[in-house]
């Protein structure tokens, strides 16, 4: 590895003030009011990075109708954010090491705010996609920036706790989006969402300019080959995002270009990783990432994020199927917001090497318990009937980031500072793609089960069955005041009964999704317990009694 030479003179810091890593901020003493200001800016910036995309996701059906979009076109709004976000994370760590995170954030937030304001005046699909892409670019910087600001909120001895809080702040974006949506849309159209989004971006931009981070160490880290790697892997990741985002909507086997996009993604990513493997100072430490330890970490990080889709996909879409909108779901998301805050607080207060495995086990148990509590839902359930299960799921979601991050950082630091970039990229990719893949896989499974249940229910609608006849008569009575033609009345009653059957089939299918999530949690929990047990020194000695224990020196 080449010697890292500082680009600027290093101030005469005391030991407790020095940055932990190049690209981070130093940690001088601050008065209490300034620490409180740093904490407030951390929350503002971290929430800004994800709230715009969360608002679009929460109101996607409504925006689709307001803008006259097809379902496939509307899904591109989510894809545009993810395509840029996952790609920008490849370079954000090195950028802040060489140029400072503040410059990256000022560029990202400035472009994002400008696009959001422009969209208010233009307002077509093209500018909407540009705003979503700008949001993804800004979000890549905002999560890191929020963490760096939160580290300034307390003295250095609390750096672990503040790291957990800072990394978890972005989880507040989704419940906040559902809570804010009814008020934003009550007195306007989609422009209110973008007006609010632009205002947040401008406020965050002003905050980081007025309250600057303390200076850090900047070093020369970029090499020309980094940009070649980026030019290969970034489009590959973007194509993979497109496949996962559009596959369920267009259906996987009915759209040939999805197959070509997936093949191109595999070729581009594989080529980029092969080039990285041959480099002396790679952007990604491929050999380390392909090792058994990191592969287990990647699988675990993916699975625990996958489990959160029981809430993010399953519960939300089931309630939408039952006709619930942001107005009706706002109280439930107030409960979820409280759960996330409790989870973050528990994770921060119990942070430490000895708490890593217990915290992960607790997160998995909470997420699995929530899934099993929801596996017997009916069409009569309403949002607050999910309050207990979703509070547990929210606590679990708020707890897992701390131990996941500490495990990865410890493994990376044991190999050297150059491995930190690889860890940051891998953590970001696993969380983003687990969310996308979880929604795609669970959505496909739900649709399959809905077709199975619909066929079974429709086959039982025998016109000679007294119960079916009674239901048809009830439906005819409901429409008798507005439809006088007997033929049309019978047809409308039959259609209404078929709609009811389809709704019940969807509810049963979502119950299967919840059960599947619960069984994934059980399998993951069993695997983690087995890993912990087999790595216990006493168990190792019992399994391999002939292997001598190394003497201590």
Annotation keywords:
single chain, 553 residues, mainly alpha, 21 helices, 0% strand, disordered C terminus
- H and E string: HHHHHHHHHHHHHHHHHHHHH
Structure summary, number of beta strands? 0
Helix content: over 70%
Q: Supply the number of helical segments.
A: 21
Mean pLDDT over the full residue set: 80
> What best-fitting shape do the alpha-carbon axes yield?
globular
- Give the N-to-C terminal Cα separation: 31 Å
The portion of residues forming beta strands comes to under 5%
Radius of gyration over all CA atoms, rounded: 26 Å
The chain-level structural class is: mainly alpha
Low-confidence stretches: 548-553
The biggest sheet amounts to: none
Please explain how this structure is put together.
The structure is a single chain. With 553 residues, the chain is mostly helical. 75% of the residues lie in helices and 0% in strands. It has 21 helices and no strands. The chain has helices at residues 32-58, 60-66, 71-98, 101-122, 125-151, 159-168, 173-185, 191-210, 224-250, 256-278, 286-289, 292-307, 309-321, 326-349, 356-373, 387-399, 401-415, 420-459, 466-479, 486-534, 537-543. Helix 13 (309-321) runs parallel beside helix 18 (420-459). The longest helix is centred in the last third of the chain and has 49 residues, at 486-534. The chain is globular.
């Amino acid at each position: 590895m080449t010697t890292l030479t500082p680009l600027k003179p290093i101030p005469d810091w005391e030991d407790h003030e020095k940055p932990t890593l190049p690209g981070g901020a130093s940690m001088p003493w601050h008065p209490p009011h300034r620490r409180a200001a740093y904490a407030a800016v951390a929350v503002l910036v971290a929430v800004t990075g994800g709230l715009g995309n969360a608002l679009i996701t929460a109101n996607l059906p409504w925006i689709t109708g307001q803008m006259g979009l097809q379902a496939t076109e509307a899904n591109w709004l989510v894809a545009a954010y993810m395509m840029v976000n996952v790609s920008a994370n490849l370079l954000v760590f090195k950028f802040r090491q060489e140029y400072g995170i503040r410059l990256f954030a000022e560029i990202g937030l400035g472009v994002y705010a400008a696009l959001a304001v422009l969209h208010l005046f233009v307002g077509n699909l093209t500018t909407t996609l540009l705003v979503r892409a700008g949001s993804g670019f800004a979000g890549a910087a905002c999560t890191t920036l929020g963490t760096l600001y939160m580290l300034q909120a307390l003295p250095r001895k609390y750096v672990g706790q503040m790291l957990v809080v800072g990394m978890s702040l972005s989880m507040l974006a989704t419940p906040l989006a559902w809570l804010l949506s009814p008020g934003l849309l009550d007195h306007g159209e989609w422009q209110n969402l973008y007006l609010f989004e632009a205002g947040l971006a401008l406020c965050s931009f002003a905050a980081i300019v007025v309250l600057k981070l303390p200076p850090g160490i900047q070093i020369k880290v970029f090499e020309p080959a980094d940009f070649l790697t980026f030019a290969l892997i970034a489009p590959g990741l973007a194509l993979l995002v497109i496949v996962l985002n559009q596959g369920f909507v267009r259906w996987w086997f009915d759209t040939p270009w999805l197959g070509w996009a997936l093949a191109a993604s595999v070729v581009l990513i594989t080529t980029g990783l092969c080039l990285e493997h041959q480099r002396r100072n790679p952007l990604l430490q491929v050999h380390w990432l392909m090792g058994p330890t990191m592969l287990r970490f990647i699988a675990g990080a993916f699975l625990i994020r996958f489990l959160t889709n029981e809430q993010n996909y399953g519960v939300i879409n089931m309630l939408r199927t039952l006709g619930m909108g942001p107005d009706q779901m706002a109280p439930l998301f107030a409960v979820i917001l409280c759960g996330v805050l409790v989870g973050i607080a528990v994770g921060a207060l119990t942070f430490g090497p000895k708490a890593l495995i217990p915290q992960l086990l607790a997160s998995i148990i909470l997420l699995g318990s929530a899934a099993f509590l929801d596996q017997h839902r009916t069409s009569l359930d309403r949002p607050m009937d999910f309050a207990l299960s979703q509070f547990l799921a929210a606590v679990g979601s708020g707890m897992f980031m701390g131990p996941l991050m500490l495990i990865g950082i410890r493994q990376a630091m044991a190999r050297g500072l150059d491995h930190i970039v690889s860890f940051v990229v891998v953590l970001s990719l696993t969380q983003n793609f687990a969310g996308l893949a979880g929604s795609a896989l669970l959505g496909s499974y739900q649709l399959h089960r809905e077709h199975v249940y619909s066929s079974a229910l429709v086959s039982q609608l025998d016109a000679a069955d007294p119960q079916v006849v009674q239901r048809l008569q009830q439906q005819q009575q409901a429409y008798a005041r507005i439809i006088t033609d007997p033929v049309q009345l019978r047809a409308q009653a039959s259609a209404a009964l078929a709609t009811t059957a389809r709704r019940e089939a969807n509810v049963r299918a979502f119950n299967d999704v919840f059960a599947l999530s619960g069984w994934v949690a059980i399998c993951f929990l069993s695997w983690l317990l087995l890993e912990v047990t087999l790595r216990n020194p006493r168990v190792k000695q019992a399994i391999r009694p002939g292997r001598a224990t190394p003497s201590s020196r």
